[in-house]
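Thread: quick sanity check before group meeting

JM: Hey all, I'm pulling together slides for Thursday and realized we never actually wrote out the predicted structure for the chain we discussed last week. Dropping the sequence here so it's in one place. If anyone has concerns about the input, flag it before I start.
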Amino acid sequence: MMLDRKTQVKADMMLVVLTLGWGVSYFMMDLCLEEIDPLTLNAFRFLGAFAVAWLLAAKKAIHVNRITLWYAFLVSLSLIFVYIGATYGVKYTSQSNAGFLCGTAVIFTPILALVFRKTVPDKKTVFVVLLCTAGMAMMSLDTHLHVARGDLLCLMCGLSYAVDLLINEAGVRREDVNAFQLGIYQLGFTGVWMLILALIFEDMRLPQTGGCWVSLIFLTVFCTGIAYIAQVVAQQYTTATHVGVIFTLEPVFAAIVAFLFAGERLLPRAYAGMVMMLVSILLMELGGKEEDAIARE
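JM (edit): ok, ran it. Output follows.
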């Protein structure tokens, strides 16, 4: 089925807004991690987001079929590794390395699509991915990239998120999968996994300050609850590769937030990298009517 171009652009722009929220989330996560541990933070985020989504849309969520639940379960398995990689990775490596390596989903997504689905990317997509990757490297990397424990964890995050995108895309292309319900139940499954891990490996405790509570609520409601449901709904109208490229804007937005609220300054080459990434998004959205055709299962 051919994707409608105007609808796809709208879906992509929705994903850009979500990516802005995730860029802000780095600042919020830093505040939260001063008081609570990573697995505990993720358990609160996903279980809280699931509770909010259920309360707001219980009538739409209560009648769910097994196929939708199965895809939600599969997505949750990938999200465990995404968030363990991201939260612990940032803890054990530099912010610049983490920003680049967690963003490697843009590289892994078309590679995995080629390997497992035999989906050959068109020339424009290949160019956009390369341009994004170069811009991400200029923005995020120092002169030396040390392959340490934190770097490997962040790389795991990028690979796992590419898997997440492809599973979500496979799910929402099916007529018997409800995208809205898929978004809700993946939150619940992920929250349960994170709670189990937190109970085993961490000393769970509640935030102690108002600032941490505000940050946790923002992470829970917008960055997790609204964002993941909106992502799977929007992904019905675009492709996993487009989503992967759009999500490379996350370190750009994170850098802007750090500049405004934390007084962080970047090197000139980093700002040049940001421009390259923004140009790649523009190129991806302009022209081309045939490359986004996707066969519905």
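AS: nice. Residues 289-297 have pLDDT under 50 and may be disordered. The chain has one domain: 5-285.
JM: adding both to the slides.
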